[in-house]
Amino acid sequence: MSPHRLVLIRHAQAGSAPVDVDRPLTEHGLRQAAAIGSWLGRAGLVPDAVLVSPARRAVQTWERAGVVLVPGLQPVLDARIHDNTVGAVLAAVRETPDEVHTLAVVGHNPAVGQLVTVLDDGQGTPVARQDARNGVPAGGVAVFDLAGPFADLAPGGATLTEFTVPEV
Q1: Mean pLDDT, contiguous 10-residue spans, the chain (168 residues)
Q2: Domain 6-93+107-164, what fold?
């Protein structure tokens, strides 16, 4: 049985809007989102399920990434991802069924950046760990292998194997 994988994605570059939840991706952000999908495909990281913040920029990020990667895979919009706290995002992730092997989560900082730090068991790829220490910029992707099911995910309970900001 293959390990469970968690792919944390910070939404691509966003513009402004009167209301935060309505902020759209910029032209650069649209290209970033497509690059995320291409990179995930080349890395063999095709998700079985996707949790996405209902914020416009996160939805657009997955729409662009997903169409390149897995056309037709419908994301689950989860307000807890937009709550943008480690606890809220972890609660959503822990509800992932066991039959899902690769879960992608498209969210926001500070939660995505904090999760990258909090989940890391210190045993991951040295380059990925070093790059992640600099923070998770817009369009950043962190990939974790989990020792057990998503339901058991806890701080220090995952191995950071990849960290990248796909080039546009």
Answers
A1: 88 96 97 97 96 98 92 93 97 97 97 96 94 94 96 96 94
A2: Rossmann fold (3.40.50)
Confirm if 36 and 166 have CB atoms less than 8 A apart: yes
Give the 3-state secondary structure of residue 80: helix
Instruction: Map out the domains of the chain as residue ranges.
Output: 6-93+107-164
pTM of the entire predicted model? 0.96
Work out the angle at residue 88's Cα, subtended by the Cα atoms of residues 65 and 75, and round it to the nearest 5 degrees.
30
Catalogue the E-assigned strands of the chain. 4-10, 49-52, 76-77, 102-107, 141-146, 158-164
User: At how many degrees (to 10) do helices 86-94 and 111-119 cross?
Assistant: 70
DSSP conformation letters of 4-43: EEEEEEE---B---SSGGGPPB-HHHHHHHHHHHHHHHHT
Rounded Cα distance, 128 and 50, in Å: 22
